[in-house]
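Example record

The entry below shows one chain as it appears in the dataset: sequence first, then structure tokens.
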Amino acid sequence: MTTREVLMTRPSPGEGASGIDVARDRGIRRIGVEEELLLVDAETFRPVPVVDDAIGPAPGSVVAHGALLEHEVKREQIEVVSPPLSTYGELVEAIVDGRRAADEAARPVGARAAALATSPLACDSHVVTTPRFDRMRERFGLTMDEQLTCGFHVHVSIDGREEGVGVLDRIRPWLPVLLALSANSPFWQGADSTFASYRYQAWGRWPSAGTYEPFGSAAGYAAAVDEMIATGVAFDAGMVYFDARLSNHAPTVEVRVADVCLAAEDAATLAVLIRALVETAAAGWRAGEPVDDVAGRVLRLASWRASRSGVGGELLHPLSRRPVPAREAVHDLYRHARERFATTEEEVRVRHGLAEILRRGAGADLQRAELARHGTTAAVARRAVDLTHRVPEVAGAP
């Protein structure tokens, strides 16, 4: 078992020896999160290729503050993997601690860790040296060379791959709203992209990325993955970059559509909301409720709209597929999942968290506001570092 597998399946303190399975016996699905962070120069705030200096050469990893620090595809990035967790409060603490661990690894080499889904400043990027990444660079050329984006991946435990596929098939229409709530990448190579999440646009250059059609069953999912690999374009199941997928290394559904969030509490809000969405979908699967088989081409348009507008404009409603104010789509996502939060306190936390995102905007809105105040993308990145490591008030958080 790899270090990542140990971390994703180990229990939190006091939870016993069987990790995710113990939590499911208690009726609570466990959540694990993966945050990809930018490594930026501590003075200029431009991304710097120092991950090997910070945590050692690939494929090495470091455990600090309860989090696993790993390489991502670029040397200007570091990935932080949490253990499986149960509550909003645990998630906030783990996210804050993981960001601190990444920052502590970066500081001795003159860098800081920033929760930015793309860099506000123009920069070059450098591929981490591994045989797999070298092969990807040879195959995908400029797509690989230019791919410096940071996502937020949420793992939610499942009771088997059949249930997992039942969940994947039923959460599809709601994924664009999650993207809008997380949008934190308005800049690309030093210019305003006009998108709230340009990361999603850049990530969409991978031929195996994005929306997906309903699979119907675990066998259908496996056949779809095998068909993609058989083309010779995707090397293996790890390159199946659906917006949500079955994990290859843990008994989870992995929701991958989101940007890394600027605020730790926004990340925790999304993670808990995603668990409620998964629980809602699993209940629908168990009850034999039909799948909304909205076409992938329509979901692609909904995702584009979410990437363009974030929470500051219109979204395609997940059910009607017609333009509505973002607030309406977010409210209906919350209503869709509200009966499946683990506790009343958790539901209140998420309701308040969503209201706060709608009030002050997601990360893209905060970045643009900082640019308007100070006029430079360096100031945007500097402020992003501060916000990345701001410790939110979570007293009494469930």
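Notes for this example: The first helix runs from residue 3 to 9. The longest strand covers residues 31-41.
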